[in-house]
What does this fold into?
Amino acid sequence: MTEEERRARERIAKSRIRRQRQLRRYAIVGTGLAAVVLIAVVTLVLRLLGTREASAEVPVTDVKYIAAQPVIEEDLLPVNEYSRPGTELFEVNAIVVHYTANPGTTAKQNRDYFAGLAETHQTSVSSHFIIGLEGEIIQCVPCDEIAYASNERNKDSVAIECCIEDDTGRFNSETYDALVELTAWLMGRYELGTADVIRHYDVTGKNCPKYFVENAAAWRAFKDDLITYIEENGQEKEK
It folds into this structure.
């Protein structure tokens, strides 16, 4: 092999190596671009899904029916600074759902606990309504007064406490059905949509009501059940 032929082969080999390096660089860049595009697409899809989920909330103007008032036992707390301060509630912009976090207790027992705070001074807590394990609804605080239930939303919300059977925090069928009926009625009374029905968790991040916080699908199903109940059992709103 002549010197000239050897040099020609070296040039060809070096050229081949340069092309291979370029191809590897292109492959890396292409992979990076593909990843960026994929992330952008996934982000867009998630945003669209979020928008769709948000749009599933029914605004006030779309609530065409008003549900009747369920059976409510009025057993108001004595006026006291620990559970019923007697402070006027000027407006209701939300319905806040809670759970009692003490499995096996009844609506009456929880009501009496709230009342006893006037003597024990242990804490400041109450609720407008308590729903028991048999679906009974006890009203503890008038809806035109604040209850100590929902932190900064005490000033513009009505609170519903729900009794539970066990540590899962899941409402039994009687409690759940009464919650749907009571919430649906309050929605019509205050001209609220499902977007105005919130969890204690949505105010403070507290794990309350536990089952609805830990099971987002169950919370969405509850919203759907509200609309179904109103449409099937409510009376058409006067125009």
